[in-house]
Design brief:
Pfam families: Amidohydro_1. The chain is of the alpha/beta class. The protein contains 14 helices and 19 strands. The strands form four sheets. Strands 1, 2, 3, 4, 5, 6, 17, 18 and 19 form a nine-stranded mixed beta sheet that branches. It has a five-stranded parallel beta sheet with strand order 12-13-14-15-16. It has a three-stranded parallel beta sheet with strand order 7-8-9.
């Protein structure tokens, strides 16, 4: 794969990762407790390897002289943040960069790897990648060659011809009739698959490379050129093919869809997670609540001046619908996850944390913190045995992953602290490794 060789040529320096002893003891910190929606009394947390070994209000006795001790000074310890819908590659590039005929895999991956490091330094220790050529980046992060969050990869999006994942330029013709894959397919960004057999093959190709879940385009999109926002994409049999193949591997399908028709067809076919859904009605949301289907939702900003006129027009019903869907989904008891879904607008990445604050219209601070940690973690672990990181996530508990942030202040009272990671995140730890420590 071209991107894999490119990433091998461009590896972000990991010298910023501090020398790591086998154990870390964080003393005198107040823990965010999701069960009580409050902070605990001062506690001590012992980290061994990647996991939290012990939590105690009493002093923790140590037998290891090489334990690194950190005085938390009564600050707040929260789980690492989780974004349930990112595009690590697409989000780091503009559409012009992605589609440019002069772009090389090396030039593309340079921006992607740098963006990965910045995301971790904003406190996002885990993400679910919702489509794109992600496998080389994930492998490099897991091998400590690139700094970045844990990634639950979907691999190439699976789209019908003229669907949301059809990014062919006008001169690129159909692979089926003319025999040449599109450039986006060659880069591993998408599969254009029509019919049950092609969808099965595309799904299995992603699983072969290590996908933890499968991303299928089930409805129109705002960033794609050919499909109106209202169209339903893929027949029942085609979606069911992806679900059957994914379930045979013990995992699930997530679908891009906005409308009731697309979502209800997907649910009938066995899909477990709906991405977006800002145009859903009460009937469809009630079906989701009754069946325990996840709604992985975003709260997008208004159109910006640089956006092309077609995309602005396509986004109107999405922007209008999101203010209705969030509170209605909460009222009906739908399983809710939060994500950003930044796509081809890399300048938005710096605002990733501030987008969390936009949920304050409908949720308490405690509810929001739970959603962007524990709830999002529950969705990620829906991958079952295909999860690349099995174990407790999104909580501060013994035997959970030591993905931790020490916050200067109490985010239950002042959620804006979360939007100031450079100043207010004193420690950022992922898997027991300290990536930032301003107390040292």
């Amino acid at each position: 794969m071209k991107l894999k060789s490119a990433l091998a040529l461009f590896l972000v320096s990991t010298t910023m990762v501090m020398a790591q002893t086998k154990q870390v003891l964080i003393e005198n910190v107040r823990l965010l407790d999701h069960n009580t929606a409050a902070l605990t009394e001062p506690m001590n947390v012992l980290v061994t390897g990647q996991k939290i070994e012990k939590i105690s209000a009493s002093k923790i006795a140590l037998n290891n002289n090489e334990v690194e001790k950190i005085n938390g000074k009564g600050k707040t310890l929260i789980p690492g943040l989780i974004d349930a819908h990112v595009h690590m590659v697409f989000g780091a590039l503009t559409m012009q960069e992605m589609m440019s005929t002069t772009a090389t895999p090396e030039s593309l991956m340079k921006n992607v790897a740098a963006g990965s490091q910045k995301m971790l330094m904003r406190g996002f220790t885990s993400v679910r990648d919702a489509g794109g050529p992600i496998f080389p980046l994930k492998a490099a992060i897991d091998a400590d060659k690139v700094v970045g969050p844990r990634i639950w990869p979907s691999g190439a999006t699976i789209s019908q011809t003229a669907g949301h994942g059809d990014f062919r330029t006008p001169e690129e013709r159909s692979r089926r009739f003319f025999g040449k894959p599109s450039r986006a397919e060659e880069l591993g960004a998408t599969f254009i698959a029509d019919g049950r057999d092609e969808v099965l093959t595309a799904t299995r190709e992603n699983l072969r490379f290590g996908a933890s879940q499968i991303k299928v385009m089930a409805g129109g999109g705002t960033s794609s050129a050919y499909d109106p926002i209202d169209v339903t994409q893929y027949t029942f049999d085609e979606i069911k093919a992806a679900v059957d193949a994914a379930e045979d591997w013990g995992t699930y399908v997530m679908v891009h869809a906005y409308t009731p028709r697309a979502v209800q067809r997907s649910i009938e076919a066995g899909v477990k997670s709906i991405e977006h859904g800002q145009m859903l009605d009460e009937e469809t949301l009630q079906i989701m609540a009754d069946k325990g289907i996840w709604l992985s939702l975003q709260n997008l900003m208004d159109n910006n001046d640089n956006m092309d006129a077609q995309r602005k027009e396509k986004r109107k019903p999405v922007l209008e619908g999101q203010a209705k869907v969030w509170p209605l989904a909460k009222e009906l008891g739908v399983k809710l996850a939060w994500g950003t879904d930044f796509l081809f607008e890399p300048e938005l990445n710096d605002d990733q944390n501030s987008y969390i604050l936009r949920l304050q219209k409908w949720f308490t601070n405690a509810e929001i913190l739970k959603m962007v940690t524990k709830d999002n973690a529950e969705l990620l672990q829906l991958s079952g045995l295909r999860s690349p990181y099995p174990g407790k996530l999104g909580v501060i508990e013994e035997q959970a992953y030591a993905d931790l942030i020490l916050v200067d202040g109490n985010p239950l009272k002042d959620l804006s602290l979360i939007a100031k990671p450079e100043k207010k995140f004193l420690i950022i730890m992922k898997g027991g490794k300290i990536y930032k420590n301003t107390l040292k």
